[in-house]
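[step 3/7] fold_predict: job queued, chain A
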Amino acid sequence: MNSSSKHLLPIAKEGWAFIVPSIALTLICLVLAWSGLAIFFALLAIACIGFFRDPERAIPQGDHLILSPADGKITSIEEVTMEPTPGQPVQMRRVAIFLSVFNAHVQRTPVAGTVTSVKYFQGQFINAIYDKASDLNEHNMIWLQTAMGPIGVKQIAGLIARRIVCFVKPGRQLPLGERVGLIRFGSRTDAYFPLEAELKVQVGDAVKAGLHILAEMPQK
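[step 4/7] structure written:
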């Protein structure tokens, strides 16, 4: 998927497998005069359209910007130890973003860069709002090599979310705000970036993928 392409309908293609059957069942129930079921499936279709919406975004431009990779609410900002390169631990800033079922669930790149690794980890499905979910839950870790150094995006499954979809592979060059994946039905996304970046958000802020600025690197 290319973030620069214009969608005829702003819906992630992965959503049609849920939307089309819901609409079809709505029509069948209407024909059979099953009004109660028709209303149920119509509401389900509307909910799926809302969940899988993938609107075009006016991506802010700047080599020093670190954008939000997901829609949702910031639940924690921590200093953590990560290994973008195995065996070489570094201290990084982690911003955790919780996605409710009402948020759009497509993730985007926080910076421009080249994908160096994509690793999937099996795990649990505890509520993603808990801090320990970042390590214990099923997740997919994407690392980018950028002008700022390594930048990470972690897609984390949640209590309801049981399906992580990743659109990218190692070696791919991605522009700022490119779509990289989605997580179905409530989840969490963590962004990892250098400590020297100046934070522009705080816990409790609502953010949108590819639109809101999480931090800015000092300009040389």
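[step 5/7] annotate
The chain has two domains: 1-56, 65-216.
Residues 1-6 have pLDDT under 50 and may be disordered.
exit 0
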